[in-house]
Design brief:
With 191 residues, the protein is of the alpha+beta class. It folds into 2 domains: 40 residues; 130 residues, GTP Cyclohydrolase I, domain 2. It is built from 8 helices and 7 strands. A 5-stranded mixed sheet has the order 5-2-3-6-7, sandwiched between helices. A two-stranded antiparallel ribbon has the order 1-4. A hairpin with a 5-residue loop joins strand 2 and strand 3. The chain is elongated. 29% of the residues are buried.
Amino acid sequence: MSKKESKLEELIKKLLGELGEDPERQGLQRTPARAARSLRFLTAGYSVDVDRIFSGALFSDTCEGMVVVKDIEYFSVCEHHLLPFFGKCHVGYIPRDKIVGLSKIARVVDAYARRLQVQERLTKQVAQAIQKHLDPIGVGVIVEARHLCMMMRGVEKRNSVATSTTMLGAFRDDPKTRSEFLHLVQSRLSE
């Protein structure tokens, strides 16, 4: 166990005590170690170099259509309440002269989702990363989420879904491009 893990486990053990629990009772004895591993996994995006995701996965190509990867499942942790939010991310771009391996788009979503986040920033970061590395004609990102901080506490709205968008280039400036993207995201061509 690293010194970092040990310190995190100690903090979690202290937190359990502050909540009124006995961290030494049988069911909680290994909780600090499990929770520390869980938190490290859920925030592993801090150690991901997004630039490296793109390296070796960019290809010169003149694709004239829109590339859309939709229904990318993700999980994140709300930085305000430290509760999960989760949902689907939809990413579209119009290549100028570069395309990227499609799995890299999902990896970019995970890299940013596995950090303490707010949905709006997650949406923007994914779009900006695609823009930076591909220099496309346009980028569109839509993130849908269910937030446990809204479902379990506060307003307790169990069926609410939040949607955020970032549109860059042609997706922002051209209503027809934006409309095509929205239509493709909403359609279920593969079903």
